[in-house]
Structure formats: structure tokens, C-alpha cells
Amino acid sequence: MLKSLEQDILNNISTNACCCNAFLNAIISITKEHIDENCLIVNCPLFLQDKFCSMLKQIAPNLTFTPHNQGLLIQGKSLIEMLTDLEIINFNNGTVELNNDYSENLLINECCKISYLKGVFLCVGKLYYNNDSLAKSNGYNLELTFKDYQLANNILKLMKSLNLNLKLTKRGHNIVLYSKDSQILVEFLVKLGAVNTAFELQNNLVIREIRNDANRKGNCFDANLNKTINASVEQVKAIDYIINNYGLDYLNDSLREIALLRLANPESTLSELQKLYSTNITRAGIKYKLDKILAIYKQIKK
């Protein structure tokens, strides 16, 4: 599922210059291992490298890309210009300085914010859900893991501006943004353009809800059945005691009929006894008579 999600996002990267810059900025800012005037080394995921390199080539055609023990080595005459355009670095009195890992100037438009989030998620994000609709555990989990608290907090604010309310926690030396809310996961996927995965997750949620609703109704039925059986056992016990010790005539005419009906139909519900009664009577009337017999039994036992 994760592999198809990654491809789902990659297939929906905007071609607008501003969005491409935001996407590339996210990847470089998060995965850079080394940067100076001569080279850039990034350690972005392997599945992302082809897309990353081809997008960089479009804005800086003379860049070269070489495998490196720390990831991917990027060099070329236009390296400094490219890094400046992406607001990774700037010049201060002729010297190169690194900017903050989070550039608000590139994220003015909502489309750019979403493109930036796509880059962030592809680099440090994980999404898990159990697509087995019969599983007991929901297992919905979205996580983005960062080493820098300030960057994580800035991205948390960025998500809130897009109505995506994740939580922040510290895990070891890392800062994690996360959510276990299935609806937030769906909204997040839709924002990122991963419509196929969002549809799969939404379908999974619907199936689970139908199954859970059926279980709730089944449990309710079982509970009512047990309640009926328990009540019937208590009523039969009371009637047997009265008849065996005092005789059926101890009960008045009104109670005698319902006592005999209950003895003959110990598993019947109140509604079923109502239909068997000789005259018109409500379900509440049947219950009242049986409760009256129980009261007599308890009074005798005292």
C-alpha cells in the first residue's frame, strides 16, 4: 500500500514553477547531509531520486548527479544559483549562508504549501492502516519524524493552516507529528493528491462501520435475549413455588392465566405472551401481572 501511495503522490506533483520550488526546497532542506559552494549531498529516499533529479535538471540543466556514500552528490556551475532560487542559501557580503530549513517566502499560496508537504511526507512520512476489515484493531496511523524541533513545529503550523490538526510528541531524539484519526488521514491524503489511497482507506472505513454496526445490533439482541431468559427463569421459579406450596388458587383469576401461560411457554417474550393471552392486553399489562406474581413470591419467602 505504501509503495502505491508514494507513486500516487509523485504522479500528482504540480508543474507550476512556484510549486516545484516548494517541493524541491522540502526535499533538500530535510535530507541534506552537506552543502557548500561546490557541492550538495542529499540523502533522499531512493524511490524519490529520479523525480528529484529530473525536476532539478529542469531549472539547472548543467547539474551532475553522482552516487555518494552519504546519498547523492550534486555539483555544477549553476548549483549556487539553484540553491539561491530555492531559498536554501543566500549571499551575505559575498559569503554563502544557509537559510532556515523552513522558508515561508515559498509557501504563500496554498498550492505551494501542499507541494511542500508532499516533499516532506515523501522524505519523513509514514502512513499505516490495517486494510483487513475483519481485524479488531483499527490501526490508523500517520507519522512525520523530524530531528529538529523548530522545523517540526513550523510544519505543524503549516498543517493547521490547511485544517490538518496533527499532534506533536517527542520520541527519543526525534520530534514526531502524528494522528490516529482516520478522518484526518483521509483529508491529508486528499490534500496530497493521493486520491486512490484515500478512496481505499475511505472504503475500508465504511466496511468497518457496517461490520461494527452489525456487531452492535447483534450484541444488543443477545443482551435482550439473555435478559428475557433470566426474567423467565425467575418467573417460572416463583410460579412453581407458589403452586407447589399453596396451590394455583392462591393466585387470583387475573394472575392465574398468565402464570399458566408462562409455565407452558418459558422461552416466550412478553410480546409473544401478549398474543397468547385470552383477552386484549398490552405488553406492559403482561409485565405488570408477572411482576405481581414475583412480588407475591418474595412476600411469601419473607
Can you put this structure into words, describing what you see?
The radius of gyration is 35 Å and the shape is rod-shaped. It has helices spanning 2-10, 17-31, 46-59, 79-85, 110-124, 149-161, 182-191, 195-246, 253-264, 270-276, 283-301; strands at 32-35, 40-42, 64-68, 71-75, 89-92, 95-98, 125-128, 141-146, 167-171, 174-179. β3 (64-68) and β4 (71-75) form a beta hairpin. The chain is built from eleven helices and ten strands. It has 302 residues and is an alpha+beta fold. The strands form three sheets. It has a four-stranded antiparallel β-sheet with strand order 1-2-4-3. The chain has a four-stranded antiparallel β-sheet with strand order 7-8-10-9. It folds into two domains: 2-193, Homing endonucleases (Endonuclease I-creI, Roll), CATH 3.10.28; 225-301, no CATH class. It is 57% helix and 15% strand. α2 runs parallel beside α5 (110-124), α7 packs antiparallel against α8 (195-246) and α9 crosses α11.
